[in-house]
Amino acid sequence: MKDLAGKHIVLGLTGGIACYKAAELCRALIKDGATVQVVMTDAAQQFITPITMQALSNRPVAGSQWDASEPNNMAHINLSREADAVLIAPCSADFMAKLAQGRADDLLSLLCLARPLDKVPLLLAPAMNREMWAHPATQRNAAQLQADGATVLAVGGGDQACGETGDGRMLEPQELLEDLVAFFQPKLLAGHHVLVTAGPTYEAIDPVRGITNLSSGKMGFAVARAAREAGAQVTLVAGPVHLPTPRGVRRIDVKSAADMLTATVNVAEDATVFVATAAVADWRPAQTAEQKIKKDGSGQPPMLEFVENPDILATIAQSPRAQAAELFCVGFAAESEDLLANSQAKRLRKGVPLLVGNIGPATFGQDDNALLLVREVGVESLARAPKLELARELIAACARQIRAKA
Ligand code: CTP
Question: I want to staple 25 with a disulfide (CB 3.0 to 4.6 A). Which of 100, 173, 386, 405 is the partner?
Answer without folding.
Answer: 173
